[in-house]
From TrEMBL:
The keyword Metal-binding does not apply. Keywords: ATP-binding, Ligase, Nucleotide-binding. One of its GO terms (biological process) is microtubule cytoskeleton organization. PANTHER family: TUBULIN POLYGLUTAMYLASE, TUBULIN POLYGLUTAMYLASE TTLL11. This is Tubulin polyglutamylase TTLL11.
Length: 338
């Protein structure tokens, strides 16, 4: 570890935050310039929407989204039009602050007039999306999937998807949103950092049980129920590839401005965290992409109010150690020499 930076050449620079941590002249860096900006909720929504306009059938894995505050009038108009054409449509929307993470600032609404416009949205832009009301449930609970994707290079575009990921569960049995239960975050939001504070959160030593499990354990259960797991995987792979294709043009602009062609500089790779929700009919929907997915393999346990200790988490360890190990193997600079 070099807390004050290191200017000597080395094979792999592993940065905690972003590409611009300090000057890097050689080797490989585990961050792409511009990636943090590209996967913010607003930028991601814009990039995917551009592709939705061009290829509506190919990009139907991302919920309908509007950018606030600038598209607020559009949001109000479109919802009114859709309600007029189908009076039985009773939508729910989810509002996500652009720079928020770990579930911070997210809330559900039934009507555009419920958006908390009081100053905060003006100073804090957000994305509002149609909420997916019919998620796949396991043990009556809603869950999402965190998959790890290695973007190994932009030119040529080279993408690897880890075979296993995490399934992160809500801690209260799911019910479709109503005005009464809209604020029940433990029922509607799958964020680990929220649910860990629920009294129902289960830390398990088994990858098949508890509030955080392996994705492979969910696939096993689905397969035993007769679900077509092969098709599900191919749908997920397709979602990942198409999402990265949507981000690539702007990523290349960032890349070329920071590492001009022909100049000596590092090459880049990056592990991305894809958050995916399965609908009841097993269609995967993209929730968001994380440029800095947590690689911690322990969790905090509250011993007494406000007193925490770190406890190893077998589920995190099983998935994340493999992700890091295989990433290092794939970008191994020694490989060419052997």
């Amino acid at each position: 570890q070099f807390p004050f930076g290191r200017r000597l050449p080395c094979d792999i620079y592993w940065h905690g935050v972003s590409f611009h941590d300090n000057d890097i002249f050689s080797g490989q860096v585990n961050k792409f310039p511009g990636m943090t900006e590209m996967v913010r909720k607003i930028t991601l929504s814009r990039a995917v929407r551009t592709m939705q306009d061009l290829f509506p059938l190919e990009y139907n894995f991302y919920p309908r989204s509007w950018i606030l505050p600038e598209e607020f009038p559009l949001f109000v108009d479109e919802v009114r039009m859709m309600k007029d054409s189908d009076p039985s449509w009773k939508p729910t929307f989810i509002v996500k602050p652009d720079g928020g993470c770990q579930g911070d600032g997210i809330y559900l609404i039934k009507d555009p007039s419920d958006i908390r416009l009081t100053g905060s949205i003006q100073s804090r832009p957000a994305v509002v999306q149609e909420y997916i009301c019919k998620p796949l449930l396991v043990d009556k609970l809603k869950f999402d999937i965190r998959l790890y994707v290695l973007l190994k290079s932009l030119e040529p575009l080279e993408i690897y998807i880890a075979k296993d990921g995490l399934s992160r569960f809500c801690t209260e049995p799911y019910q479709e949103p109503t005005l009464k239960n809209l604020h029940q975050v433990f029922m509607h939001l799958t964020n680990y950092s929220l649910n860990i504070h629920s009294g129902n959160f289960i830390h398990s030593d088994n990858v098949n049980t508890g509030s955080k499990r392996t994705f492979s354990s969910i696939l096993c259960r689905l397969s035993s129920r007769g679900a077509d797991v092969k098709k599900l995987w191919s749908d997920i792979i397709s979602l990942v590839i198409k999402t990265i294709i949507a981000l690539t043009p702007e990523l290349k602009v960032y890349y070329q401005s920071d590492i001009p062609a022909g100049k000596p500089g590092p090459t880049c790779f990056q592990i991305l965290g894809f958050d995916i929700l399965l609908m009841k009919n097993l269609k995967p929907m993209l929730l968001e992409v994380n440029a800095n997915p947590s690689m911690r393999i322990e969790h905090e346990q509250e011993l007494s109010p406000g007193v925490f200790e770190n406890v190893p988490s077998p589920v995190d360890e099983e998935v994340k150690v493999a992700v890091i190990r295989d990433t290092l193997r794939l970008v191994d600079p020694q490989k060419k020499k052997r």
